[in-house]
Amino acid sequence: MTELPPIDFAPPDVGEAEAAAVVEVLRSGWLTHGPRTREFEERFADWVGAPHAVAVSSGTAALHLALVCAGVGPGDEVVTSPLTFAAAGEVIFQCGAKPVFAEVDPRTGNLTPATAAAAITPRTTALLPVHLGGYPLELAELAALCRERGAALIDDAAHAVEARSGGRRVGTLGDATAYSFYATKNLTTGEGGMLVTSREDWAATARLLRLHGMDRDAWNRYAADGVPGYDITALGYKYNTTDLAAALGLVQLDKLDVNRHRRLELAAAYDEALDGLPGIVLPPRPAADSGDEHAWHLYAVRVVEGECPLTRDELAAGLRRLNVAAAVHFHPLHLMSYYRRTLGTGPGDFPIAERLGRELLSLPFSPVYDAATVREAARRLRLVLDEAHGLP
Ligand SMILES: Cc1ncc(COP(=O)(O)O)c(C=O)c1O
Known about the structure:
By secondary structure, the protein is of the alpha/beta class. The protein has 2 domains: about 15-255, Aspartate Aminotransferase, domain 2, CATH 3.40.640; about 255-390, Aspartate Aminotransferase, domain 1 (Alpha-Beta Complex), CATH 3.90.1150.10. It has 13 helices and 12 strands. The protein has helices at about 15-30, 35-50, 60-70, 85-95, 115-120, 140-150, 200-210, 220, 245-275, 310-320, 335-345, 350-360, 370-390, and strands spanning about 50-55, 75-80, 100, 125-130, 150-155, 165, 170, 175-180, 195, 280, 300-305, 360-365. The strands form 3 sheets. A 7-stranded mixed β-sheet has the order 1-9-8-5-4-2-3. Strands 10-11-12 form a 3-stranded antiparallel β-sheet. Helix 1 (about 15-30) packs antiparallel against helix 9 (about 245-275), helix 2 (about 35-50) packs parallel to helix 9 and helix 3 runs parallel beside helix 4. The longest helix is centred in the middle third of the chain and has 32 residues, at about 245-275. Bound molecules: pyridoxal-5'-phosphate (PLP). Pyridoxal-5'-phosphate binds near residues 58, 87 and 130.
């Protein structure tokens, strides 16, 4: 059989405009964070509709700085999702605090106000939920819960740049919102992140801590009107970003609206092509009148145990044989060795998250694709299932 052309998981939508923007920075002679970074911060804050945006080196750095701004430290608990990326649990530990997991909703895979409330204790200083795959959290309700229980709301919007919750843009409802611009994300700078906050004091702290706690960054010192020298006023981190990344990000920001339409089109094409397959549950969609808007970072189907002839991992392996790359978001954190060892968590603690962790499969999805590519990925998925059913 001739080999089928590969369908990659999430190729980035970067082209000549990004290349030109990066070359311009290379030619400018100023590579690290400087004027392009400031412009990116201002334009990103405007786009979100939030007062402050602080550019950093990764989404992980944004999450970490947000927890530091919230004053999270030893003895504290931070409530988070078991169905999230390594970064969330990691930064809680790095603050000396303890991750406390809350169960997720079986439809969306997100924490809910009810599950979060059940996990909050008097030691909880922050809630750190994720908008899984871009499906928006119930932010207004979570913010009200956090106010009532004296915890900060830090939402992880690594998947949710374009999402809205109850009509409000994600990034405008929490104390701070963290974004990732990792290579596969809807807005990518290769690596990078942004901390968005309504709190001026948090923005000032994050700006200070992202560069070693120095009261003046390099641009402030070396620019024509800069002032040489600096003081170190706090213990900081090396979390700053570069003007190369910011230049890339500015071009990517301009593409978000157009790419969003493409993502909606691809999700609809997948829905149509995969409709009616036994044991395959299509991704949830927010109700039309809810004001919720999905960012469609991922298109993840559920491969339902006991209903589909293949397990999720068998289906993924079958797709791989047909040159289709699929991915898993996420393997539950509380089942990872470090967490089991450190927190004593294990199988059975969060049955819904565990089940979704075994069943969810993210299919190839990128604005560089057209509906025909997605239909071809769906066709190959049907081939794998037909083979499992013993069909010719
Ligand atoms: C949900 C989620 N949160 C946080 C991160 C961390 O972002 P970064 O890789 O930019 O540090 C990721 C990255 O993949 C993610 O998917």
